Amino acid sequence: MTAPQHKPKVSEREARQVAEAAREQDWRKPSFAKELFLGRLRLDLIHPHPQPAPEDVERGEAFLAKMRDFCETRVDGRLIERESKIPDEVVNGLKELGALGMKIDTKYGGQGLTQVYYNKALALAGSASPAIGALLSAHQSIGVPQPLKLFGTQEQKDTFLPRCARTDISAFLLTEPDVGSDPARLATAAVPDGEDTYVLDGVKLWTTNGVVADLLVVMARVPKSEGHKGGITAFVVEADSPGVTVENRNAFMGLRGIENGVTRFHRVRVPAANRIGPEGSGLKIALTTLNTGRLSLPAMCVGSGKWCLKIAREWAGAREQWGRPVARHEAVGAKISFIAATTFALEAMTDLSAQMADENRNDIRIEAALAKLYGSEMGWLITDELVQIRGGRGFETADSLAARGERAVPAEQMLRDMRINRIFEGSTEIMHLLIAREAVDAHLSVAGDLIDPDKTLQDKAKAGVGAAGFYAKWLPKLVAGPGQLPNSYGEFGPLAQHLRYAERSARKLARSTFYAMSRWQGRMETKQGFLGRIVDIGAELFAMSAACVRAEHLRAAGENGREAVQLADTFCRQSRIRVEELFTRLWSNTDDLDRKVVDEVLAGAYTWLEEGVLDPSGDGPWIADATPGPPTRDNVHRPVR
Question: Which residues carry out catalysis?
Protein backbone atom coordinates (compact mmCIF):
# COMPACT_ATOMS: atom_id res chain seq x y z
CA MET A 1 0.00 0.00 0.00
CA THR A 2 1.74 3.16 -1.24
CA ALA A 3 0.41 6.68 -0.94
CA PRO A 4 0.42 8.90 -4.03
CA GLN A 5 3.39 11.15 -4.58
CA HIS A 6 3.37 14.18 -2.30
CA LYS A 7 2.48 17.53 -3.87
CA PRO A 8 0.94 16.50 -7.20
CA LYS A 9 2.35 18.49 -10.10
CA VAL A 10 -0.41 19.98 -12.23
CA SER A 11 -0.48 22.55 -14.98
CA GLU A 12 -2.62 25.69 -14.84
CA ARG A 13 -4.99 24.14 -17.36
CA GLU A 14 -5.29 20.93 -15.33
CA ALA A 15 -5.99 22.96 -12.19
CA ARG A 16 -8.75 24.86 -13.98
CA GLN A 17 -10.25 21.61 -15.24
CA VAL A 18 -10.43 20.26 -11.67
CA ALA A 19 -12.16 23.42 -10.48
CA GLU A 20 -14.53 23.38 -13.46
CA ALA A 21 -15.48 19.75 -12.84
CA ALA A 22 -16.33 20.58 -9.21
CA ARG A 23 -18.70 23.47 -9.91
CA GLU A 24 -22.40 22.93 -10.38
CA GLN A 25 -22.95 22.72 -14.11
CA ASP A 26 -26.69 23.25 -14.37
CA TRP A 27 -29.07 26.06 -13.50
CA ARG A 28 -32.29 24.29 -12.54
CA LYS A 29 -33.77 27.30 -10.76
CA PRO A 30 -33.84 31.02 -11.56
CA SER A 31 -31.18 33.34 -10.18
CA PHE A 32 -31.58 37.10 -9.77
CA ALA A 33 -27.83 37.70 -9.84
CA LYS A 34 -27.24 35.47 -12.87
CA GLU A 35 -29.92 37.38 -14.76
CA LEU A 36 -28.36 40.65 -13.61
CA PHE A 37 -25.04 39.77 -15.26
CA LEU A 38 -26.96 38.88 -18.44
CA GLY A 39 -28.44 42.37 -18.51
CA ARG A 40 -31.86 41.56 -17.07
CA LEU A 41 -33.14 43.14 -13.85
CA ARG A 42 -35.55 40.37 -12.81
CA LEU A 43 -37.13 42.26 -9.95
CA ASP A 44 -39.96 39.72 -9.87
CA LEU A 45 -37.51 37.21 -8.35
CA ILE A 46 -36.95 39.34 -5.24
CA HIS A 47 -40.01 41.61 -5.00
CA PRO A 48 -42.23 41.53 -3.04
CA HIS A 49 -39.62 40.71 -0.42
CA PRO A 50 -39.96 37.02 0.55
CA GLN A 51 -41.14 36.46 4.12
CA PRO A 52 -40.47 33.67 6.65
CA ALA A 53 -43.27 31.41 7.84
CA PRO A 54 -44.86 32.42 11.18
CA GLU A 55 -43.71 29.22 12.90
CA ASP A 56 -40.12 29.88 11.75
CA VAL A 57 -40.31 33.38 13.18
CA GLU A 58 -41.67 32.13 16.50
CA ARG A 59 -38.97 29.48 16.82
CA GLY A 60 -36.24 31.86 15.72
CA GLU A 61 -37.21 34.73 18.01
CA ALA A 62 -37.44 32.37 20.99
CA PHE A 63 -33.91 31.12 20.38
CA LEU A 64 -32.57 34.65 19.82
CA ALA A 65 -33.95 35.67 23.21
CA LYS A 66 -32.09 32.79 24.88
CA MET A 67 -28.92 33.55 22.93
CA ARG A 68 -29.06 37.23 23.92
CA ASP A 69 -29.49 36.37 27.59
CA PHE A 70 -26.58 33.92 27.44
CA CYS A 71 -24.26 36.40 25.72
CA GLU A 72 -25.15 39.20 28.13
CA THR A 73 -24.72 37.16 31.29
CA ARG A 74 -22.08 34.52 30.53
CA VAL A 75 -19.77 35.86 27.80
CA ASP A 76 -16.88 38.21 28.60
CA GLY A 77 -15.50 39.25 25.23
CA ARG A 78 -12.60 41.18 26.72
CA LEU A 79 -11.54 38.12 28.71
CA ILE A 80 -11.58 35.98 25.56
CA GLU A 81 -9.48 38.59 23.78
CA ARG A 82 -7.05 38.91 26.70
CA GLU A 83 -6.55 35.17 27.23
CA SER A 84 -6.90 34.16 23.55
CA LYS A 85 -9.31 31.43 24.51
CA ILE A 86 -13.02 30.85 24.90
CA PRO A 87 -13.42 29.47 28.44
CA ASP A 88 -14.56 25.85 28.57
CA GLU A 89 -17.55 26.84 30.67
CA VAL A 90 -18.71 29.18 27.89
CA VAL A 91 -18.34 26.46 25.26
CA ASN A 92 -20.24 24.04 27.48
CA GLY A 93 -22.89 26.69 28.00
CA LEU A 94 -23.29 27.03 24.24
CA LYS A 95 -23.74 23.27 24.04
CA GLU A 96 -26.44 23.35 26.73
CA LEU A 97 -28.13 26.24 24.94
CA GLY A 98 -28.29 24.17 21.77
CA ALA A 99 -26.19 26.67 19.83
CA LEU A 100 -24.20 23.87 18.20
CA GLY A 101 -27.39 22.65 16.56
CA MET A 102 -28.94 25.88 15.34
CA LYS A 103 -29.19 24.65 11.74
CA ILE A 104 -29.75 20.98 12.55
CA ASP A 105 -33.27 19.56 12.23
CA THR A 106 -35.22 19.13 15.47
CA LYS A 107 -35.57 15.39 14.82
CA TYR A 108 -31.82 15.10 15.41
CA GLY A 109 -31.91 17.25 18.54
CA GLY A 110 -31.17 20.56 16.83
CA GLN A 111 -32.95 23.91 16.89
CA GLY A 112 -34.17 23.74 13.30
CA LEU A 113 -33.57 27.42 12.65
CA THR A 114 -33.95 28.86 9.17
CA GLN A 115 -30.95 30.44 7.44
CA VAL A 116 -32.39 33.86 8.27
CA TYR A 117 -32.47 33.20 12.02
CA TYR A 118 -29.22 31.27 12.01
CA ASN A 119 -27.62 34.41 10.52
CA LYS A 120 -29.22 36.61 13.16
CA ALA A 121 -27.98 34.33 15.94
CA LEU A 122 -24.44 34.38 14.53
CA ALA A 123 -24.50 38.18 14.29
CA LEU A 124 -25.63 38.37 17.92
CA ALA A 125 -23.06 35.88 19.19
CA GLY A 126 -20.34 37.47 17.10
CA SER A 127 -21.08 40.88 18.60
CA ALA A 128 -20.42 39.44 22.07
CA SER A 129 -17.22 37.77 20.86
CA PRO A 130 -16.17 37.34 17.22
CA ALA A 131 -14.34 34.19 18.29
CA ILE A 132 -17.64 32.62 19.38
CA GLY A 133 -19.23 33.58 16.08
CA ALA A 134 -16.33 31.91 14.24
CA LEU A 135 -16.58 28.76 16.37
CA LEU A 136 -20.30 28.35 15.76
CA SER A 137 -20.06 29.21 12.07
CA ALA A 138 -17.15 26.87 11.32
CA HIS A 139 -18.98 24.07 13.15
CA GLN A 140 -22.29 24.42 11.30
CA SER A 141 -21.74 26.31 8.06
CA ILE A 142 -18.87 24.21 6.71
CA GLY A 143 -18.28 21.56 9.40
CA VAL A 144 -19.95 18.15 9.61
CA PRO A 145 -23.66 19.19 9.85
CA GLN A 146 -24.08 20.97 6.51
CA PRO A 147 -22.34 18.41 4.22
CA LEU A 148 -24.27 15.59 5.89
CA LYS A 149 -27.53 17.50 5.59
CA LEU A 150 -27.00 17.83 1.84
CA PHE A 151 -25.11 14.67 0.91
CA GLY A 152 -25.03 12.27 3.85
CA THR A 153 -26.73 8.90 4.03
CA GLN A 154 -29.54 8.40 6.50
CA GLU A 155 -27.24 6.23 8.60
CA GLN A 156 -24.62 9.01 8.69
CA LYS A 157 -27.23 11.57 9.69
CA ASP A 158 -28.58 9.31 12.45
CA THR A 159 -25.05 8.68 13.73
CA PHE A 160 -23.44 12.11 13.63
CA LEU A 161 -26.10 14.85 13.61
CA PRO A 162 -27.36 14.23 17.18
CA ARG A 163 -23.77 14.49 18.37
CA CYS A 164 -23.18 17.71 16.42
CA ALA A 165 -26.41 19.20 17.73
CA ARG A 166 -25.51 18.96 21.40
CA THR A 167 -22.04 17.73 22.31
CA ASP A 168 -19.50 17.44 19.50
CA ILE A 169 -17.66 20.33 17.84
CA SER A 170 -16.78 19.85 14.17
CA ALA A 171 -14.21 21.32 11.79
CA PHE A 172 -13.64 21.41 8.03
CA LEU A 173 -10.18 20.44 6.70
CA LEU A 174 -9.34 21.34 3.09
CA THR A 175 -6.39 23.77 3.09
CA GLU A 176 -2.83 22.45 3.23
CA PRO A 177 0.48 24.27 3.75
CA ASP A 178 1.06 24.36 -0.01
CA VAL A 179 -2.57 24.20 -1.19
CA GLY A 180 -5.05 27.05 -0.83
CA SER A 181 -7.62 27.85 -3.50
CA ASP A 182 -5.99 25.43 -5.96
CA PRO A 183 -7.32 22.05 -4.81
CA ALA A 184 -5.94 20.21 -7.85
CA ARG A 185 -2.66 20.00 -5.92
CA LEU A 186 -4.23 18.46 -2.82
CA ALA A 187 -1.69 16.06 -1.32
CA THR A 188 -3.50 14.43 1.60
CA ALA A 189 -4.16 10.84 0.54
CA ALA A 190 -6.91 8.38 1.42
CA VAL A 191 -5.72 4.99 0.18
CA PRO A 192 -8.26 2.12 0.13
CA ASP A 193 -7.30 -0.83 2.34
CA GLY A 194 -9.75 -3.58 1.59
CA GLU A 195 -13.41 -2.92 0.92
CA ASP A 196 -14.39 -1.12 4.09
CA THR A 197 -11.44 1.09 5.10
CA TYR A 198 -9.34 4.01 3.86
CA VAL A 199 -5.93 4.97 5.28
CA LEU A 200 -5.42 8.71 5.61
CA ASP A 201 -2.02 10.45 5.38
CA GLY A 202 -1.28 14.16 5.10
CA VAL A 203 -1.18 17.55 6.78
CA LYS A 204 -3.94 20.17 6.96
CA LEU A 205 -3.44 23.86 7.76
CA TRP A 206 -5.72 26.50 9.31
CA THR A 207 -8.21 24.02 10.69
CA THR A 208 -10.65 26.35 12.46
CA ASN A 209 -12.03 24.48 15.50
CA GLY A 210 -9.45 21.78 14.78
CA VAL A 211 -7.77 22.11 18.17
CA VAL A 212 -10.99 21.37 20.09
CA ALA A 213 -12.95 19.41 17.47
CA ASP A 214 -14.50 16.02 18.08
CA LEU A 215 -15.43 15.40 14.43
CA LEU A 216 -13.68 16.45 11.24
CA VAL A 217 -14.71 16.75 7.60
CA VAL A 218 -11.50 15.93 5.72
CA MET A 219 -10.88 16.35 2.01
CA ALA A 220 -8.36 13.79 0.72
CA ARG A 221 -7.30 12.39 -2.63
CA VAL A 222 -8.22 8.76 -3.32
CA PRO A 223 -5.87 7.22 -5.92
CA LYS A 224 -7.56 5.77 -8.96
CA SER A 225 -7.37 1.98 -9.00
CA GLU A 226 -9.42 -1.06 -9.89
CA GLY A 227 -12.84 -0.64 -8.31
CA HIS A 228 -12.07 2.93 -7.23
CA LYS A 229 -12.93 6.00 -9.30
CA GLY A 230 -10.57 8.04 -7.17
CA GLY A 231 -10.37 11.81 -6.88
CA ILE A 232 -10.83 14.31 -4.06
CA THR A 233 -13.23 12.80 -1.56
CA ALA A 234 -14.87 13.91 1.69
CA PHE A 235 -14.72 11.87 4.91
CA VAL A 236 -16.03 12.24 8.46
CA VAL A 237 -13.12 11.48 10.77
CA GLU A 238 -13.19 11.06 14.55
CA ALA A 239 -10.71 13.60 15.89
CA ASP A 240 -9.40 11.19 18.54
CA SER A 241 -8.61 8.45 16.02
CA PRO A 242 -5.13 6.93 16.37
CA GLY A 243 -2.74 8.80 14.11
CA VAL A 244 -4.51 12.19 14.27
CA THR A 245 -2.25 14.84 15.80
CA VAL A 246 -2.88 18.55 16.26
CA GLU A 247 0.69 19.78 15.96
CA ASN A 248 0.15 23.47 16.54
CA ARG A 249 -2.45 25.97 17.67
CA ASN A 250 -2.06 28.96 15.37
CA ALA A 251 -2.17 32.58 16.57
CA PHE A 252 -3.46 35.50 14.53
CA MET A 253 -3.71 39.30 14.49
CA GLY A 254 -7.43 38.99 15.20
CA LEU A 255 -9.98 36.41 16.31
CA ARG A 256 -7.54 35.50 19.06
CA GLY A 257 -9.97 33.13 20.73
CA ILE A 258 -10.38 30.77 17.77
CA GLU A 259 -8.98 27.26 18.08
CA ASN A 260 -7.22 27.04 14.74
CA GLY A 261 -4.45 24.52 14.21
CA VAL A 262 -2.27 22.30 12.05
CA THR A 263 -3.52 18.72 11.91
CA ARG A 264 -1.44 15.73 10.79
CA PHE A 265 -2.87 12.39 9.70
CA HIS A 266 -0.52 9.41 9.86
CA ARG A 267 -1.96 6.06 8.82
CA VAL A 268 -5.38 7.01 10.16
CA ARG A 269 -7.91 4.30 9.46
CA VAL A 270 -11.30 5.66 8.37
CA PRO A 271 -14.31 3.39 7.78
CA ALA A 272 -15.69 3.52 4.24
CA ALA A 273 -19.07 4.14 5.89
CA ASN A 274 -17.72 7.58 6.87
CA ARG A 275 -17.18 8.65 3.28
CA ILE A 276 -19.59 11.44 2.29
CA GLY A 277 -20.89 10.83 -1.21
CA PRO A 278 -19.03 8.86 -3.87
CA GLU A 279 -15.31 9.04 -4.51
CA GLY A 280 -14.29 12.13 -6.43
CA SER A 281 -17.22 14.26 -5.24
CA GLY A 282 -15.40 16.03 -2.42
CA LEU A 283 -14.90 19.38 -4.10
CA LYS A 284 -18.45 19.49 -5.39
CA ILE A 285 -19.66 18.78 -1.86
CA ALA A 286 -17.44 21.54 -0.48
CA LEU A 287 -18.58 24.11 -3.05
CA THR A 288 -22.25 23.22 -2.69
CA THR A 289 -21.95 23.43 1.09
CA LEU A 290 -20.49 26.92 0.72
CA ASN A 291 -23.43 28.10 -1.39
CA THR A 292 -25.32 28.81 1.80
CA GLY A 293 -22.41 28.42 4.23
CA ARG A 294 -20.88 31.64 2.93
CA LEU A 295 -23.89 33.59 4.21
CA SER A 296 -22.70 33.25 7.79
CA LEU A 297 -19.79 35.60 7.10
CA PRO A 298 -21.77 38.59 5.76
CA ALA A 299 -24.23 38.01 8.61
CA MET A 300 -21.46 38.69 11.10
CA CYS A 301 -20.31 41.66 9.01
CA VAL A 302 -23.84 43.04 9.36
CA GLY A 303 -23.55 42.61 13.13
CA SER A 304 -20.27 44.51 13.07
CA GLY A 305 -21.83 47.30 11.02
CA LYS A 306 -24.68 47.66 13.51
CA TRP A 307 -22.21 47.95 16.38
CA CYS A 308 -20.05 50.45 14.48
CA LEU A 309 -23.12 52.60 13.82
CA LYS A 310 -24.04 52.59 17.51
CA ILE A 311 -20.55 53.59 18.61
CA ALA A 312 -20.20 56.22 15.88
CA ARG A 313 -23.55 57.77 16.83
CA GLU A 314 -22.81 57.89 20.56
CA TRP A 315 -19.18 58.98 20.31
CA ALA A 316 -19.55 61.53 17.51
CA GLY A 317 -22.47 63.10 19.34
CA ALA A 318 -20.57 63.38 22.63
CA ARG A 319 -17.14 64.41 21.37
CA GLU A 320 -16.88 68.13 20.63
CA GLN A 321 -14.31 69.98 18.54
CA TRP A 322 -14.38 73.67 17.61
CA GLY A 323 -17.61 74.30 19.43
CA ARG A 324 -19.79 71.48 18.11
CA PRO A 325 -20.05 67.67 18.10
CA VAL A 326 -17.66 66.07 15.62
CA ALA A 327 -20.65 64.46 13.88
CA ARG A 328 -21.69 67.96 12.76
CA HIS A 329 -18.42 68.42 10.89
CA GLU A 330 -18.94 67.34 7.30
CA ALA A 331 -15.76 65.25 7.08
CA VAL A 332 -16.90 63.07 9.98
CA GLY A 333 -20.59 63.20 9.10
CA ALA A 334 -19.89 61.71 5.67
CA LYS A 335 -18.31 58.70 7.37
CA ILE A 336 -21.33 58.23 9.64
CA SER A 337 -23.66 58.45 6.65
CA PHE A 338 -21.60 55.81 4.85
CA ILE A 339 -21.70 53.50 7.88
CA ALA A 340 -25.47 53.83 8.32
CA ALA A 341 -26.42 53.49 4.63
CA THR A 342 -24.01 50.64 3.94
CA THR A 343 -25.06 48.68 7.02
CA PHE A 344 -28.67 48.94 5.83
CA ALA A 345 -27.69 47.62 2.40
CA LEU A 346 -25.56 44.79 3.81
CA GLU A 347 -28.45 43.62 5.96
CA ALA A 348 -30.77 43.85 2.97
CA MET A 349 -28.45 41.71 0.81
CA THR A 350 -27.85 39.13 3.51
CA ASP A 351 -31.45 38.78 4.67
CA LEU A 352 -32.74 38.60 1.10
CA SER A 353 -30.21 35.91 0.15
CA ALA A 354 -30.93 33.95 3.33
CA GLN A 355 -34.69 34.06 2.83
CA MET A 356 -34.28 32.91 -0.76
CA ALA A 357 -32.10 30.05 0.53
CA ASP A 358 -34.85 29.08 2.98
CA GLU A 359 -37.53 29.10 0.30
CA ASN A 360 -35.32 27.10 -2.07
CA ARG A 361 -37.11 28.57 -5.09
CA ASN A 362 -34.04 30.30 -6.51
CA ASP A 363 -30.46 29.26 -7.15
CA ILE A 364 -28.51 31.59 -4.86
CA ARG A 365 -24.95 30.48 -5.52
CA ILE A 366 -24.05 33.87 -7.02
CA GLU A 367 -26.12 35.87 -4.51
CA ALA A 368 -24.40 34.17 -1.56
CA ALA A 369 -20.98 34.71 -3.10
CA LEU A 370 -21.75 38.38 -3.80
CA ALA A 371 -23.00 38.84 -0.23
CA LYS A 372 -19.77 37.33 1.10
CA LEU A 373 -17.59 39.43 -1.20
CA TYR A 374 -19.45 42.70 -0.66
CA GLY A 375 -20.03 42.12 3.04
CA SER A 376 -16.38 41.46 3.80
CA GLU A 377 -15.11 44.40 1.76
CA MET A 378 -17.65 46.95 2.95
CA GLY A 379 -17.60 45.59 6.49
CA TRP A 380 -13.87 46.24 6.61
CA LEU A 381 -14.34 49.80 5.32
CA ILE A 382 -17.08 50.46 7.87
CA THR A 383 -14.86 49.32 10.73
CA ASP A 384 -11.90 51.30 9.44
CA GLU A 385 -14.06 54.42 9.29
CA LEU A 386 -15.14 53.89 12.89
CA VAL A 387 -11.49 53.74 13.99
CA GLN A 388 -10.88 57.00 12.12
CA ILE A 389 -13.90 58.64 13.75
CA ARG A 390 -12.62 57.58 17.16
CA GLY A 391 -9.19 59.06 16.38
CA GLY A 392 -6.43 58.09 18.81
CA ARG A 393 -8.96 56.26 20.96
CA GLY A 394 -9.74 54.02 17.98
CA PHE A 395 -6.11 52.85 18.03
CA GLU A 396 -6.10 52.28 21.81
CA THR A 397 -7.14 48.96 23.28
CA ALA A 398 -10.32 48.59 25.32
CA ASP A 399 -8.34 47.54 28.41
CA SER A 400 -6.13 50.62 28.14
CA LEU A 401 -9.13 52.89 27.78
CA ALA A 402 -10.74 51.33 30.84
CA ALA A 403 -7.52 51.60 32.84
CA ARG A 404 -7.50 55.37 32.45
CA GLY A 405 -11.20 55.75 33.17
CA GLU A 406 -12.84 55.84 29.74
CA ARG A 407 -15.41 53.60 28.10
CA ALA A 408 -13.79 50.36 26.95
CA VAL A 409 -14.64 50.50 23.23
CA PRO A 410 -12.80 47.70 21.37
CA ALA A 411 -12.64 49.47 18.00
CA GLU A 412 -9.07 48.38 17.28
CA GLN A 413 -9.96 44.78 18.10
CA MET A 414 -12.93 44.94 15.77
CA LEU A 415 -10.65 46.15 12.98
CA ARG A 416 -8.25 43.26 13.58
CA ASP A 417 -11.07 40.75 13.82
CA MET A 418 -12.75 41.99 10.63
CA ARG A 419 -9.64 41.80 8.47
CA ILE A 420 -9.77 38.02 8.03
CA ASN A 421 -13.20 38.18 6.41
CA ARG A 422 -11.59 39.34 3.18
CA ILE A 423 -9.68 36.03 3.17
CA PHE A 424 -11.97 33.51 4.94
CA GLU A 425 -13.98 31.09 2.76
CA GLY A 426 -12.50 32.46 -0.46
CA SER A 427 -10.35 35.59 -0.61
CA THR A 428 -11.71 38.64 -2.41
CA GLU A 429 -9.50 37.83 -5.39
CA ILE A 430 -10.72 34.23 -5.57
CA MET A 431 -14.34 35.33 -5.10
CA HIS A 432 -13.94 37.67 -8.06
CA LEU A 433 -12.84 34.76 -10.24
CA LEU A 434 -15.48 32.38 -8.90
CA ILE A 435 -18.32 34.83 -9.45
CA ALA A 436 -16.95 35.91 -12.83
CA ARG A 437 -16.99 32.28 -13.97
CA GLU A 438 -20.66 31.99 -13.04
CA ALA A 439 -21.44 35.39 -14.57
CA VAL A 440 -20.13 34.34 -18.00
CA ASP A 441 -21.55 30.81 -17.80
CA ALA A 442 -24.27 31.50 -20.36
CA HIS A 443 -21.65 32.76 -22.82
CA LEU A 444 -19.35 29.78 -22.29
CA SER A 445 -22.30 27.42 -22.66
CA VAL A 446 -23.00 28.62 -26.18
CA ALA A 447 -19.60 29.88 -27.32
CA GLY A 448 -17.08 28.14 -25.09
CA ASP A 449 -15.95 25.71 -27.79
CA LEU A 450 -15.07 28.65 -30.04
CA ILE A 451 -12.29 29.74 -27.68
CA ASP A 452 -11.22 26.29 -26.45
CA PRO A 453 -7.87 25.41 -28.11
CA ASP A 454 -8.52 21.70 -27.63
CA LYS A 455 -11.71 21.65 -29.69
CA THR A 456 -11.76 20.51 -33.32
CA LEU A 457 -12.77 22.70 -36.25
CA GLN A 458 -16.00 20.72 -36.46
CA ASP A 459 -16.74 21.48 -32.79
CA LYS A 460 -15.96 25.15 -33.35
CA ALA A 461 -18.21 25.31 -36.40
CA LYS A 462 -21.08 23.75 -34.49
CA ALA A 463 -20.51 26.15 -31.58
CA GLY A 464 -20.48 29.08 -33.99
CA VAL A 465 -23.94 28.21 -35.25
CA GLY A 466 -25.30 27.93 -31.72
CA ALA A 467 -23.63 31.15 -30.60
CA ALA A 468 -25.01 33.05 -33.58
CA GLY A 469 -28.53 31.99 -32.69
CA PHE A 470 -28.12 32.93 -29.02
CA TYR A 471 -26.59 36.35 -29.64
CA ALA A 472 -29.05 37.19 -32.40
CA LYS A 473 -31.82 36.99 -29.81
CA TRP A 474 -29.90 38.31 -26.78
CA LEU A 475 -27.97 41.34 -28.04
CA PRO A 476 -30.98 43.36 -29.28
CA LYS A 477 -32.52 43.14 -25.83
CA LEU A 478 -29.54 45.04 -24.40
CA VAL A 479 -30.31 48.16 -26.41
CA ALA A 480 -33.39 49.38 -24.54
CA GLY A 481 -35.34 48.47 -21.43
CA PRO A 482 -37.59 49.68 -18.60
CA GLY A 483 -34.76 51.76 -17.15
CA GLN A 484 -35.25 54.28 -19.95
CA LEU A 485 -38.95 54.79 -19.20
CA PRO A 486 -39.63 57.56 -16.64
CA ASN A 487 -42.56 55.74 -15.01
CA SER A 488 -40.93 52.33 -14.56
CA TYR A 489 -40.91 50.85 -11.05
CA GLY A 490 -43.26 53.61 -9.92
CA GLU A 491 -44.45 51.61 -6.91
CA PHE A 492 -41.05 52.28 -5.34
CA GLY A 493 -41.68 56.03 -5.17
CA PRO A 494 -38.44 58.01 -4.76
CA LEU A 495 -36.39 54.80 -5.07
CA ALA A 496 -37.71 54.06 -8.57
CA GLN A 497 -34.97 56.19 -10.12
CA HIS A 498 -32.34 53.90 -8.62
CA LEU A 499 -33.96 50.76 -9.96
CA ARG A 500 -34.14 52.38 -13.39
CA TYR A 501 -30.43 53.10 -13.06
CA ALA A 502 -29.78 49.51 -12.00
CA GLU A 503 -31.69 48.20 -15.02
CA ARG A 504 -29.75 50.43 -17.43
CA SER A 505 -26.48 49.52 -15.76
CA ALA A 506 -27.23 45.80 -15.92
CA ARG A 507 -27.61 46.06 -19.68
CA LYS A 508 -24.43 48.13 -19.92
CA LEU A 509 -22.64 45.54 -17.81
CA ALA A 510 -23.78 42.74 -20.11
CA ARG A 511 -22.68 44.68 -23.19
CA SER A 512 -19.28 45.31 -21.64
CA THR A 513 -18.86 41.62 -20.84
CA PHE A 514 -19.80 40.61 -24.39
CA TYR A 515 -17.42 43.15 -25.89
CA ALA A 516 -14.58 41.92 -23.67
CA MET A 517 -15.21 38.30 -24.65
CA SER A 518 -15.24 39.26 -28.32
CA ARG A 519 -12.02 41.21 -27.88
CA TRP A 520 -9.99 38.82 -25.75
CA GLN A 521 -11.70 35.47 -26.37
CA GLY A 522 -9.56 32.74 -24.75
CA ARG A 523 -7.40 35.32 -22.99
CA MET A 524 -10.44 36.58 -21.07
CA GLU A 525 -9.62 34.33 -18.12
CA THR A 526 -6.28 36.12 -17.67
CA LYS A 527 -7.91 39.57 -17.43
CA GLN A 528 -8.47 39.33 -13.70
CA GLY A 529 -8.55 43.10 -13.17
CA PHE A 530 -11.36 43.47 -15.70
CA LEU A 531 -13.27 40.49 -14.33
CA GLY A 532 -12.96 41.82 -10.79
CA ARG A 533 -14.50 45.14 -11.82
CA ILE A 534 -17.33 43.38 -13.66
CA VAL A 535 -18.11 41.45 -10.48
CA ASP A 536 -17.86 44.55 -8.29
CA ILE A 537 -20.38 46.36 -10.52
CA GLY A 538 -22.72 43.37 -10.22
CA ALA A 539 -22.30 43.41 -6.44
CA GLU A 540 -23.23 47.10 -6.26
CA LEU A 541 -26.30 46.56 -8.47
CA PHE A 542 -27.42 43.61 -6.34
CA ALA A 543 -26.93 45.69 -3.19
CA MET A 544 -28.93 48.59 -4.65
CA SER A 545 -31.76 46.28 -5.69
CA ALA A 546 -31.85 44.55 -2.30
CA ALA A 547 -31.81 47.89 -0.45
CA CYS A 548 -34.72 49.24 -2.50
CA VAL A 549 -36.78 46.07 -2.08
CA ARG A 550 -36.16 46.01 1.67
CA ALA A 551 -36.99 49.70 2.08
CA GLU A 552 -40.23 49.32 0.12
CA HIS A 553 -41.18 46.30 2.22
CA LEU A 554 -40.57 48.22 5.46
CA ARG A 555 -42.47 51.22 4.14
CA ALA A 556 -45.47 49.08 3.18
CA ALA A 557 -45.38 47.33 6.56
CA GLY A 558 -45.14 50.60 8.47
CA GLU A 559 -41.85 49.61 10.10
CA ASN A 560 -39.55 52.66 10.04
CA GLY A 561 -40.50 53.09 6.41
CA ARG A 562 -39.52 56.74 6.03
CA GLU A 563 -36.11 56.14 7.57
CA ALA A 564 -35.56 52.97 5.52
CA VAL A 565 -36.32 54.80 2.27
CA GLN A 566 -33.93 57.56 3.26
CA LEU A 567 -31.14 55.07 3.99
CA ALA A 568 -31.79 53.17 0.75
CA ASP A 569 -31.78 56.40 -1.24
CA THR A 570 -28.51 57.51 0.37
CA PHE A 571 -26.89 54.14 -0.21
CA CYS A 572 -27.97 54.02 -3.85
CA ARG A 573 -26.58 57.49 -4.50
CA GLN A 574 -23.25 56.50 -2.93
CA SER A 575 -23.28 53.20 -4.82
CA ARG A 576 -23.97 54.87 -8.17
CA ILE A 577 -20.81 56.95 -7.81
CA ARG A 578 -18.80 53.75 -7.24
CA VAL A 579 -20.48 52.03 -10.21
CA GLU A 580 -19.64 54.88 -12.57
CA GLU A 581 -16.02 54.79 -11.47
CA LEU A 582 -15.89 51.02 -12.01
CA PHE A 583 -17.37 51.34 -15.50
CA THR A 584 -14.70 53.91 -16.34
CA ARG A 585 -11.96 51.66 -15.00
CA LEU A 586 -13.10 48.74 -17.16
CA TRP A 587 -11.32 50.39 -20.09
CA SER A 588 -9.19 53.10 -18.49
CA ASN A 589 -6.76 51.42 -16.09
CA THR A 590 -3.13 50.47 -15.53
CA ASP A 591 -3.58 46.70 -15.86
CA ASP A 592 -1.04 46.28 -18.69
CA LEU A 593 1.49 48.54 -17.01
CA ASP A 594 0.99 46.73 -13.71
CA ARG A 595 1.88 43.42 -15.36
CA LYS A 596 5.11 44.91 -16.70
CA VAL A 597 6.04 46.25 -13.27
CA VAL A 598 5.37 42.85 -11.72
CA ASP A 599 7.70 41.23 -14.25
CA GLU A 600 10.40 43.70 -13.28
CA VAL A 601 9.83 43.16 -9.56
CA LEU A 602 10.12 39.40 -9.91
CA ALA A 603 13.23 39.79 -12.07
CA GLY A 604 14.88 41.80 -9.27
CA ALA A 605 15.01 45.07 -11.20
CA TYR A 606 13.84 47.11 -8.21
CA THR A 607 15.83 45.54 -5.38
CA TRP A 608 17.59 48.88 -4.95
CA LEU A 609 14.25 50.26 -3.77
CA GLU A 610 14.30 47.80 -0.86
CA GLU A 611 17.58 49.13 0.53
CA GLY A 612 17.81 51.12 3.77
CA VAL A 613 15.62 48.95 6.00
CA LEU A 614 15.96 45.85 8.13
CA ASP A 615 13.79 42.76 7.67
CA PRO A 616 12.49 41.67 11.10
CA SER A 617 11.30 38.32 9.70
CA GLY A 618 12.82 35.19 11.15
CA ASP A 619 14.54 32.38 9.29
CA GLY A 620 12.75 29.40 7.83
CA PRO A 621 11.03 28.30 4.63
CA TRP A 622 8.18 30.29 3.13
CA ILE A 623 5.99 27.18 3.22
CA ALA A 624 6.34 24.56 5.94
CA ASP A 625 7.19 21.00 4.97
CA ALA A 626 4.03 18.91 4.82
CA THR A 627 5.54 15.56 3.92
CA PRO A 628 3.31 12.74 5.21
CA GLY A 629 4.74 10.77 8.08
CA PRO A 630 4.62 10.28 11.84
CA PRO A 631 4.19 13.36 14.04
CA THR A 632 7.27 15.13 15.33
CA ARG A 633 5.48 17.37 17.85
CA ASP A 634 3.24 16.84 20.84
CA ASN A 635 -0.50 16.59 20.30
CA VAL A 636 -2.22 19.80 21.48
CA HIS A 637 -5.72 18.54 20.73
CA ARG A 638 -7.97 19.37 23.69
CA PRO A 639 -11.65 18.50 23.25
CA VAL A 640 -13.97 20.46 25.54
CA ARG A 641 -15.84 18.22 27.95
Answer: 425
